[in-house]
Amino acid sequence: MTKLFKNTIVIGAGAAGMMAAAVAGQRGVSVLLIDHASKIGEKIRISGGGRCNFTNVNLNGGDGSKHFISQNPRFVRPALSHYTAQDFVQLLKNHRVKYHEKHKGQLFCDHSAQDVIDVLQAECATGGVEWRTGCAVKNIRALTGNDAARFELDTANAGVWQCQNLIIATGGLSIPVIGATGFGFEIAKQFGHTVTELSPALVPLVFGQWAEKGWTNLAGVALPVRVSTGAGKKATAFDEDLLISHKGLTGPAILQISNYWQTSEALRVDICPDVDLTDALTSGKLGARVQLDTALAQLAPHLSKRLLQHWFEQPAFAPHAKRKWADVPDKVLKELAASLNAWTLTPNGTEGYKKAEVTRGGVAVSELNNQTMESRLQAGLYFIGEVMDVTGWLGGYNFQWAWASGVAAGRAVG
Ligand SMILES: Cc1cc2nc3c(=O)[nH]c(=O)nc-3n(C[C@H](O)[C@H](O)[C@H](O)COP(=O)(O)OP(=O)(O)OC[C@H]3O[C@@H](n4cnc5c(N)ncnc54)[C@H](O)[C@@H]3O)c2cc1C
User: Fold this and answer.
1) What structural domains does the chain harbor?
2) pTM attached to this predicted model
């Protein structure tokens, strides 16, 4: 059987894979980009509510590693400093893509996420990248004794290919219906790599007896909170919006903290982050004529009526809701304040990969070169994007990692 050859084969035509293919191709390298899905860049298409939050201005120089979770977050520094948010913005400007900045430095397309896919495809075309979509890779073998062809791939419908460099850009496990697979992790293991523990991240959290406790009646209620988890040096907090859903809690605050949440750990939610309620409730009650529930509504006007009503249905507070604020004992007021400023609850789990935006964990970064993303165990083998043990915050950080790691590998093979 004829064996076809490209200098570099990239498996996975998502964010990282298309970027790496384009960069390598434009450096004169012959590149084949393979994806088993018939449509490429599906995660880009559905991202950011269809507008793709493609990067974040916080990744313009400086130390971006605090926005990433990994066994070694510092691993991301060289790649992020060699390809910054501004570099990606410049690429979009070159293609006249209009964008805007939202909350906390997040950049979105004005028009549609398709603009980003079009830019990457155009860049691949400029680099002469050849494509095979709807093409599954069945086996990969390392070849020995020939530096020009170090790998051989059997594909389901595009023959047998050899290459010098093989870039794995198959992403994580989230949203299997649009083509996510564990293929990259299997290939990593085949070549002796460690794959760290995998779990859904940037994901809604679920709680036991949600309906029984009446929370489903509050589905749709949103409010700004401070959410935290972990203790001591491992404590992490986010000030963001929380949304109550039929299954549990979601919204940006919960998605962010889910990146850090460990099974059986509690979450602390401060639902009045700007008010010290212990002080406000105990010192403000003197001579007050209003009812306690009215007083709380005035002290925390961002809490909806439905939420306050639900709070006062708890047995500890129900008898006091309609009492005159001044008559409520300090002990009760302190308990009420603590329940709101430090609402503590332990998730049962997450909504899983069906709803997760990303996968936490992946190919151990200690076994990869942080300048090039090349394996330290197998020359010519690269891992980029979400398949690696690098998980970004919500807000464009994951795409910037896909671009930056893709550029690093694309430059290295070129
Ligand atoms: C709903 C949703 C919204 C998101 N919104 C944002 C956002 O706004 N901003 C942000 O920064 N991040 C966002 N993310 C995360 C972001 O999409 C990913 O981190 C990013 O796409 C990872 O890029 P990647 O190239 O590593 O993987 P992917 O983009 O997932 O690409 C992997 C590619 O590999 C292909 N593939 C998988 N298995 C195989 C196989 N066996 N053979 C061949 N090909 C294979 C897939 O078909 C896919 O095309 C979102 C994710 C989701 C699910």
Assistant:
1) 3-198+358-413 (3.50.50.60), 205-350 (2.40.30.10)
2) 0.96
